[in-house]
Amino acid sequence: MPRMPFDFHGYRVVVAGGSRGIGRSIALGFAEAGAAVSICARGVAALEETRQALAAHGVLAHAQSCDLADARAIEAYVAEAASALGGIDVLVNNASGYGFDDGDEAWIAGFNVDLMAAVRASRAALPHLKAAPHGCILHTSSIAAFRPRANGAAYAAVKAALSQYTTSQALALAEHRIRVNAIAPGSIAFADGLWERRKLEQPELYRATLAKIPFGRFGKPEEIAHAALFLASPWAGWITGHTLVVDGGQMLHG
Fold first, then answer.
1. How far apart are CA 185 and CA 241, in angstroms?
2. In the chain, domain spans
3. Active-site residue numbers?
4. What is the pLDDT of residues 56-94, one digit of tens each?
5. Assign residue 241 a region: left if phi > 0, alpha if psi is -120 to 50, beta otherwise?
6. Which residue from 27, 42, 134, 200 has the fewest beta carbons nearer than 10 Å?
7. What topology is assigned to 12-189+220-247 in CATH?
């Protein structure tokens, strides 16, 4: 691997949904670059394992269990994270309710976790971001936001809403010099993740999806983390209101 190209020493980073997969890689990327990092998720064991991995980089690492479908829990977590880190420079909203069926529960989970958790965490973090010298918000959207889907309409709809929210939020916060962007990952594989499960449970879907990726492989969580670090860095200081697709060309096949 090449040397870490970013320097986030002095930054305070909060990753909502940071104990596994993409969120974990984003949190570890910031820690490797020198940032103090706080993460939340529901699973206590995975949180503590990730907190220890963050601390191994010699940075301040904070973790707290939080149900990101719960508005009060989000408010309490963000306040605790800001207290532990001494402020917030970067907020990463990464959680998903994975609403892939058409039942009310899938729609409600997607609305509460994919969209409203981002809205609520942003609202709670805003006073700290306004006080930061380089405030930045990043949302994890999806390439599903850009195309109609016969299956997973709930997931696609809330991710599309999140991408739209990114643009409106960026405009609203520009006067405070807070940048807001989103990342739209393609299909990302990691241990015990969605695509690893589908490889076993839905092998035909797995193979069909793989065949649509020009790079010939699924993405890695750290490849999304690299994009997150760039968008949060001074190198992206004139970029706001955008959703960056990171998909190995997957969308090129529609």
1. 17
2. 12-189+220-247
3. 141-142, 155, 159
4. 999 999 999 999 999 999 999 999 999 999 999 999 999
5. left
6. 200
7. Rossmann fold (3.40.50)
